[in-house]
Design goal:
Number of domains: 1
Low-confidence stretches: 1-25, 254-275
Strand content: 35-45%
CATH topology: Methylamine Dehydrogenase, Chain H
CATH architecture: 7 Propeller
Order of helices and strands: EEEEEEEEEEEEEEEEEEEE
Mean pLDDT: 84
Number of helices: 0
Largest sheet: 3 strands, antiparallel
Distance between the termini: 6 Å
Radius of gyration: 18 Å
CATH superfamily: Regulator of chromosome condensation 1/beta-lactamase-inhibitor protein II
CATH class: Mainly Beta
């Protein structure tokens, strides 16, 4: 047993398609190329043909125009081993060491680290329109507006509150989830150690959501961003002027291993971790 410290990354109010989670971040550029920075990208041609990207802790995923997935980076749990047949994908999500792919037929494929069943999509595996990946759990939004969650449920992150209906978007943090309702309100569940599930009032007018490991973000219909939860490094302090935003993403530095958990901190101390 050992302890270590980790620091959260800042929140970015950008219209990006990748969730910032680790050393390598990507965004689709003109001509469908991918630009990465941080840990060096090697072994994959990123010069063109991409329409979307997703970033895990130490691995990255790219959705090609032909519906196939390219994966690169750390692969110690098979998170870069895209199952065959590698075709027909329309959306991606990635987390610490597992990956999710949404197919055009509404099914979800999961691969990589599976200690908590985060890659075992519950039946019926159909009707999904969006996916999101937490540290050890996965979430899918169905076409009927319901949410399905599977994997680790140590903090209730797979217990979608009732009524499970009317959702139009979902975002996932380390062990908490956010669901956006059609009426513009936000529902939060799972770990709430640092207030990441305490949606500030007024809970209305939201149009998009994002999560860091212990903080949450919401974009309002007036272009402002609301942030709540862990603010150790100012990740909830949106810089002025807080207006005219069109997208958002949240991220953090790499987390500890599969059973790592935050122990908390004293005044003036950095967060402590147990592995």
């Amino acid at each position: 047993m050992s302890s270590r410290t980790r620091r959260s990354w800042q929140t970015v109010g950008l219209a990006v398609v990748a969730t910032v989670l680790g050393g390598t971040t990507g965004a689709t550029a003109a001509g469908g190329s991918v630009v990465g920075w941080g840990i060096q990208v090697v072994g994959v041609d990123l010069s063109g043909g991409f329409q979307a990207v997703a970033a895990g802790e130490y691995h990255s995923l790219g959705l090609r125009d032909d519906g196939s997935v390219a994966a690169w980076g750390r692969n110690d749990y098979g998170q870069c081993n895209v199952p065959s047949s590698n075709e027909g994908f329309v959306a991606l999500a990635a987390s610490w060491a597992h990956s999710l792919g949404l197919k055009g037929d509404g099914s979800v494929v999961g691969w990589g680290h599976n200690s908590s069943g985060q890659c075992d999509v519950p039946p019926p595996n159909e009707g999904f329109v969006a996916v999101a990946a937490g540290h050890l759990h996965s979430v899918g939004l169905k076409a009927d507006g319901s949410i399905v969650a599977w994997g680790s449920n140590r903090s209730g992150e797979c217990d979608v509150p009732s009524p499970n209906e009317g959702f139009v978007a979902v975002a996932v943090g380390g062990s908490h989830c956010l669901g956006l309702k059609a009426d513009g309100s936000v529902v939060a569940w799972g770990a709430n150690n640092l207030g990441e599930c305490d949606v500030p009032s007024p809970n209305e007018g939201f149009v998009a959501l994002a999560c860091g490991y212990w903080h949450s973000l919401g974009l309002k219909d007036d272009g402002a961003i609301v942030a709540w939860g862990d603010n150790t490094d100012g990740q909830c302090d949106v810089p002025p002027p807080n207006e005219s935003f069109v997208g958002l993403a949240g991220g953090q530095l790499p987390q500890p291993g599969p059973e790592g958990r935050r122990l908390g901190r004293g005044v003036g101390e950095q967060p402590r971790w147990q592995v």
